[in-house]
Automatic annotation (TrEMBL):
<dbReference type="InterPro" id="IPR018499">
    <property type="entry name" value="Tetraspanin/Peripherin"/>
</dbReference>
<feature type="transmembrane region" description="Helical">
    <location>
        <begin position="62"/>
        <end position="84"/>
    </location>
</feature>
<dbReference type="InterPro" id="IPR008952">
    <property type="entry name" value="Tetraspanin_EC2_sf"/>
</dbReference>
<comment type="similarity">
    <text>Belongs to the tetraspanin (TM4SF) family.</text>
</comment>
<feature type="transmembrane region" description="Helical">
    <location>
        <begin position="221"/>
        <end position="246"/>
    </location>
</feature>
<keyword id="KW-0812">Transmembrane</keyword>
<feature type="transmembrane region" description="Helical">
    <location>
        <begin position="96"/>
        <end position="116"/>
    </location>
</feature>
<keyword id="KW-0472">Membrane</keyword>
<dbReference type="GO" id="GO:0005886">
    <property type="term" value="C:plasma membrane"/>
</dbReference>
<feature type="transmembrane region" description="Helical">
    <location>
        <begin position="20"/>
        <end position="42"/>
    </location>
</feature>
<protein>
    <recommendedName>
        <fullName>Tetraspanin</fullName>
    </recommendedName>
</protein>
<dbReference type="InterPro" id="IPR000301">
    <property type="entry name" value="Tetraspanin_animals"/>
</dbReference>
<keyword id="KW-1133">Transmembrane helix</keyword>
<dbReference type="Pfam" id="PF00335">
    <property type="entry name" value="Tetraspanin"/>
</dbReference>
């Protein structure tokens, strides 16, 4: 009688573990969609700004999240098959994929956090040089578009202030045609509106574009780090459930 009760109890525990894994898979898919969405949003929505950064760490973090989110779709399906079929080999493969994705998302989260710590210094060292040396220069069209969008989106002018443009290659050349700042600094853009740098005509923001871009990137890095590490922690639960179910399932007959 006790043996029958013990078998029933073990069956009940196995069923509970299976349901827990199904619930985890649902949460896993939701988390994966969030990871994929954040990665795609970061690259598509703000891709212009990436050309202004000295390092590719920001973009790499986003690409890693896209990779991890894509793997989640395949892994979630594999997890459901493993639970339904109750095969140890499927569970082992599922656990392996969970571990790989866990490490990928952890790397993305750590990269985002590390880059967040040195973001301010990198922008101070490189943004002004990038804007003044490369704006409106041959072969630098992507940077020119990025600077124009940056100044219009954040309503700023120059890396620290509008006077930064006075030393730029573009303003000191004949191409500027008498402008003292690019036209994208103007509150209302018209042809050659950059010839007048009065506060009523151009944006005068304390801290310049560096402050605005730094805050924007810092907010995005926090989202990337939080999503990556958050979903990675969720996967720890999935790996624990998988190990428990693996121990309770009998060896495959083949």
């Amino acid at each position: 009688m006790s043996a029958v009760y013990k078998d029933d109890q073990e069956d009940w525990l196995t069923v509970c573990l299976k349901y827990l894994l199904f619930v985890f898979n649902f949460l896993f898919w939701v988390g994966g969609a969030a990871v994929l969405g954040v990665g795609v949003w970061t690259l598509v929505e703000k891709s212009d700004y990436l050309s202004l950064l000295a390092s590719s760490t920001f973009a790499v973090s986003a690409y890693i999240l896209i990779l991890a989110g894509s793997l989640v779709v395949v892994t979630g399906f594999l997890g459901c098959c493993a639970v339904i079929r109750e095969h140890r080999s499927c569970l082992s493969t599922y656990f392996f994929f969970l571990l790989i994705i866990f490490l990928i998302e952890l790397v993305a989260g750590v990269l985002a956090y590390v880059y967040y710590q040195r973001l301010s210094e990198e922008l101070k060292q490189h943004l002004n040089h990038t804007m003044t040396e490369n704006y409106a220069q041959p072969g630098k069209e992507s940077i020119t578009l990025a600077v124009d969008r940056l100044q219009q989106d954040f309503k700023c002018c120059g890396s620290n202030n509008s006077h930064d443009w006075m030393q730029s290659v573009y303003i000191t050349s004949q191409q500027a045609d008498g402008r003292v700042v690019p036209d994208s600094c103007c509150k209302t853009i018209t042809h050659r509106c950059g010839k007048r740098d009065h506060p009523s005509n151009i944006y005068k923001v304390e801290g310049g574009c560096i402050t605005k871009l730094e805050q924007f990137l810092a907010d995005h890095l926090l989202v990337i780090g939080a999503v990556g590490i958050g979903v990675a922690c969720l996967q720890i639960c999935g790996m624990v459930f998988t190990c428990c179910l693996y121990k309770r399932i009998k060896m495959d007959p083949y």
